[in-house]
């Protein structure tokens, strides 16, 4: 369940912490005809930046190398959802690559940190729409039943737009 107090008091930090805990998010492309794709986020909570290891020969990688752009990223969990808009650019900082390198990342790059296809992307969020709920499964069912009986909308949590 999402912490609604943090949602109200520091939604920016909560967003970064939620994304940090995610195995993957859906990352968009500047090519609006391309589908979003699952990517593993590497989050610097303090800086408010998200990094992704990519492939410079992939559709996304080659597009961003040619044209850094604003894209959308979506995070969906059972009690927290976010649609984040920000700037996606190539990032060649060796210290950042070293900082987030791990065995899961290494599995994708046989040549290691200097694999010729490896490309790190930097996502700098600008703004987001976020939704959070503190309802358990039973609470969710209770809200639905109550709404149906009373003819009201169920109380499923909170939502807001935030600047990052």
| Category by helix and strand content | alpha+beta
Q: What is the H/E order?
A: HHEEEEHEEHHEHE
Count of DSSP strands: 8
**Strand percentage:** 25-35%
N/C terminus separation: 23 Å
Helix content: 25-40%
Q: Roughly what is the average pLDDT, rounded to an integer?
A: 92
User: Which spans have pLDDT < 50 for at least 5 consecutive residues?
Assistant: none
Which geometry do the CA atoms define? elongated
Q: Helix tally?
A: 6
What characterizes the major β-sheet? 8 strands, antiparallel
From the alpha-carbon coordinates, what is the Rg to the nearest angstrom? Answer: 18 Å
Could you describe the 3D structure shown?
The chain is of the alpha+beta class and 164 residues long. The chain contains six helices and eight strands. Strands 1, 2, 3, 4, 5, 6, 7 and 8 form an eight-stranded antiparallel beta sheet that branches. The longest helix is centred in the C-terminal third of the chain and has 14 residues. The radius of gyration is 18 Å and the shape is elongated. The two termini are 23 Å apart. The mean pLDDT is 92.
């Amino acid at each position: 369940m999402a912490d609604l107090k943090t949602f109200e008091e520091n939604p920016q930090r909560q967003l970064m912490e939620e994304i940090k805990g995610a195995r993957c998010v859906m990352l968009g492309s500047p090519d609006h005809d391309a589908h979003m794709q699952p990517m593993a986020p590497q989050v610097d909570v303090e800086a408010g930046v998200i990094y992704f290891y990519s492939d410079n020969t992939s559709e996304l990688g080659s597009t961003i190398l040619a044209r850094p752009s604003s894209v959308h990223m979506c995070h969906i969990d059972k009690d927290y959802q976010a649609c984040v808009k920000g700037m996606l650019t190539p990032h060649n900082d060796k210290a950042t690559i070293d900082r987030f390198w791990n065995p899961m990342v290494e599995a994708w790059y046989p040549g290691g940190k200097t694999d010729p296809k490896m490309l790190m992307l930097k996502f700098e969020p600008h703004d987001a729409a976020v939704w959070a709920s503190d309802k358990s499964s039973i609470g969710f069912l209770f809200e639905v039943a109550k709404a149906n009986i009373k003819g009201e909308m169920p109380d499923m949590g909170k939502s807001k737009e935030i600047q990052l």
